[in-house]
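User: Some background: our group keeps a shared notebook of sequences we're curious about, and every so often someone picks one and asks for a predicted structure to add to the entry. Today it's my turn. The entry only has the sequence so far, pasted here. Could you supply the structure so I can complete it?
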Amino acid sequence: MTASSPIDPRARYARWVAPLCWTAVALEGFDLVVLGVVLPALLKVPSWGLDPNSASLISVVGLLGVAVGALAIGPVSDLFGRRGTMLLTVTSFSVFTLLCAVVDGPWLFGLLRFLAGLGLGGVLPTALALITEYARVGRGGSSTTVLMTGYHVGAVLTALLGILVVERYGWEWMFVIGAAPAVILVPLMVKFLPESAEFLKARGTRAARPPRERNPIGILFRHGYGRATIAFWVTSFMGLLLVYGLNTWLPQIMREAGYELGAALALLLVLNVGAVIGLLIGGRVADRLGYRRSTIVWFTAAAVFLALLSIKLPGFSVYVGVLLAGIFTFSAQVLVYVYVARVYPAAARGTALGAASGIGRFGAISGPLVTGFLLTAGLAYPWGFYLFAVVAAIGAVAITVVNRDPAPDAPLEVTAEGDTATRTE
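Assistant: Of course. Here's the predicted structure to add to the notebook entry:
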């Protein structure tokens, strides 16, 4: 490890990166559940004329916006910087979310959900790139998984706020609350969020390359990265299919298995508790055992425990089974992001993360739709769990074909004094 002079004068603000990015990711957790929180109220608005089908369409439109935003924003962050991209995504998401509170019809509401999704889709890949590039030596995995706890904390807080706010004050206030953090978060980012030192280094390197080397999208398929890129896309699709399919339909599947409604809802809570535990454990395991091996193990374990849920377990054991499924299923997808961030060079890291997240969003759309079809056909139990187990197994197999080691320009360690130090992994 050799010391060098600071690349970024703002690196003394490195300690702000984690809390600011964590808060931004929590906003995505807000978006995960806010529509579900307000939909019962929206279905009762006579002038809107919504039914379950049209409400589902609004949900899909919002997710499409997130997918498009994730695919588009990665190259922007690689070409123009992480800091400015993060400011753009948080600001745009918050503005369009606030406007959702004042619309008077479903069509405009759906459009605003799409536009908000564009900004929101860029939050996660940009935050992941920043966290990776400011992670200390040997803590890249745990830094990323701790970041992703914000996603689940945001989701839980939104659900709790929905109980307190919607019936008493109206559904509109949920969108006001979702936009309000930007009033504090954006000024804090303007003042304290530093640009990535590694991005500045990569930008300087790109300036010396031929024009064709400046295209971050092209890097995903050149220099031997193409095979890894396709493998990551397949795995991310499968991972988010599991996350959204389970979060949307687990209670109903368990009801079909014969569990009481209260127990079915409690199992959803247990599933998400397992997700947080998995995040805290998975990152540390990945830092010690390696990103490829850990991701394969996590998807394989998810397949095993999801298949186990196809058996009606007695008493308390069903809660243990769901907890274990949550531990491995949800954090498996996050380990994909950890691995992606470590494989690609800084010049294409945001693009790679955005593409994996964006392609994964189509899995997020597919999960609830496919599971809903099984429910309609009366096949969700036990076949839904068989399907989830196969999906997790495909994710594990896809990771095995990744043929890339961590990129040579591994993240720089930023010291408390603001100096940067190069390192290799």
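Suggested note for the entry: The CA atoms of residues 180 and 265 lie 29 Å apart. The chain has one domain: 2-422.
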